[in-house]
Amino acid sequence: MNIQRIPASSAGRSKTVTYGGLVYTVATADSDSDNIIEQTQCALAYLDLHLQEANSDKTRILQATVYLKDMKAKEQMDQIWCEWIGPKENWPQRACVGADLAGNDLIEIVVTAATLD
């Protein structure tokens, strides 16, 4: 089995890695917005693209870790997340963690998903 890596724009890391029918990816908002709703929507749109590039989609997410700069924003993030992830048949195992994120990032989402193959 080969490891497939899709490079990120930042040196030293990949935005997506696939191996053995699994996809590992991460997304931030890449935005100057100081609004958690806007940043969450943007990060989730990037996740959609990353998963598609790796022959997967949000219905195949097994596990997600959401890093938030401010845990007080969790309720707003949850609203956008639940709209995006869809019915409970799609719900992955998920954790939310408060973190000192870089720059203006308010959210970073790391997921593991199964490929569609």
Description:
This protein is an alpha+beta fold. The chain has a single domain, classed as RutC-like (60s Ribosomal Protein L30, Chain: A). It contains two helices and six strands. A six-stranded mixed β-sheet has the order 1-2-3-6-4-5. Strand 2 (14-19) and strand 3 (22-28) form a beta hairpin. Helix 1 (36-53) runs parallel beside helix 2. The chain is globular. The two termini are 14 Å apart.
What topology emerges from the helices and strands here?
Layout: E1 4-7, E2 14-19, E3 22-28, H1 36-53, E4 61-68, H2 74-85, E5 93-98, E6 107-114
Parallel strand pairs: 4-5
Antiparallel strand pairs: 1-2, 2-3, 3-6, 4-6
Helix pairs in contact: 1-2
What is the strand tally? 6
Question: How many structural domains?
Answer: 1
Taking all Cα atoms into account, the compactness measure Rg is: 14 Å
CATH superfamily: RutC-like
- Reading off the top of the CATH hierarchy, the class is best stated as Alpha Beta
Low-confidence stretches: none
Largest sheet: 6 strands, mixed
Judging by the overall fold, what is the CATH architecture?
2-Layer Sandwich
